[in-house]
Amino acid sequence: MSFLGAIGAAQKEAMDADERVVIIGEDVEANVYGTTGAGKSRKDKGDFLQMYGRNRIRNTPISEEVIVGAAAGAAMTGLRPIVDLSYSSFLYMAMDQFVNQVAKNRYMFGGQASMPVVFRSAMFYGLNTGAHHSDRPYPMFMNVPGLKIVVPASPSDAKGLLRTAIDSDDPVLTFEACQLWGLKEEVEEDEYRIPFGVARTVREGTDVTVVAIATAVPEAVKAADALAAEGVSVEVIDPRTLVPLDSRAVLESVAKTGRLVVADPAHKTCGAAAEISAIVAEEAFDALKAPIARVVTPDTQIPFSPALEKQLYPARDSIAAAVRRVAGARPRELALS
After folding, report:
1. Which residues form the Transketolase-like pyrimidine-binding domain (predicted)?
2. Of 10, 179, 233, 308, which one's alpha carbon is 20 to 30 angstroms from that of 23?
């Protein structure tokens, strides 16, 4: 099953299970992005609009502030909306709704109102879509109390985490890396859920911990494969959810390896990599055998030029270089120590 197919499957399961689940957003009736029906990868699954009708599948105007505000109101009155906001970069247009309404509602009303709404958006970085469409804005929302932040990196996680998000009585933002949409793997056909705050150990190792996010996950695995031939054993951890963050999994891994590299496609300043690095520095400084290294995107606008953009994000070569740097000059001895 593909990453997109897994999202479609999770949405269909949730809509079949609970008539309060509705999908609204940009072009969801026409299934433009392939998650609401009979797209190329899900021809046999049926069209959501035909199956559930316009009361539960509805297009919205291209006005992100209106979409987010309407979804918040719908959630407060009993529905459980899944909102497709298409580009993550467009979330900025609805910052007031996100920050002052969606995130603060439960607190402002003393817990009398809940906000069971999921906001899906896709990060189109690495596809030469220019500065307005290429952002990876999850760190900005990590800075807003009251929001849960999900960044799946595999089809299985995309399905299981989305089911958990739909069940949540609090607002959840999911950030999907568009480059992973075509990724395929075996995914359980039956219903399942992946709890928030539980990281995935993608690959076990003993010399260096690499915490990787979104597209950095498969790149970190490829780097680990290459480094294994050099005698360096790399453990790759995918946090899956950044809020809540499975700090324990990261700290336990660093306690074992003594070295940390964080690979994060977001910008360097105040990014997820900065937060993870700070937690390890605060909680596990004594375990560190080398300074922490971050492999991130420089604090610059994203160029349209394919040749320039390709150099910005964490890739297997840059991750491997960081691992070699923290591992020291004699990596073959690490596996023997």
Report:
1. 1-183
2. 179
* DSSP secondary structure string for all residues of 299-319: SSPPPS-HHHHTTTS--HHHH
> CB neighbours of 288 closer than 8 A, spacing ≥ 6?
254, 258, 259, 260, 280, 281
Q: Where are the domains of the chain?
A: 3-180, 200-327
Task: Answer whether 24's CB lies under 8 Å from 71's CB.
Answer: yes
The catalytic residues are: 133
- Domain 3-180 fold is Rossmann fold (3.40.50)
Query: pTM for the full model?
Result: 0.93
DSSP-assigned letter for residue 87? E
> Mean pLDDT for the chain?
93
Residue 285 burial by CB count (10 A; 0-12/13-18/19+): exposed, middle or buried?
exposed
Name the CATH architecture for the domain at 200-327: 3-Layer(aba) Sandwich (3.40)
Contact 259, 327 (CB under 8 A): yes
Q: How far apart are CA 124 and CA 149, in angstroms?
A: 18
pLDDT score recorded for residue 47: 86
Instruction: Report the chain's terminal Cα–Cα distance, integer Å.
Output: 41
Other CB atoms within a 10 A radius of the CB of residue 53 amount to 10
Q: Please enumerate in sequence order all residues whose Cβ is within 8 A of that of 73, keeping only pairs 6 or more positions apart, or say none.
A: none
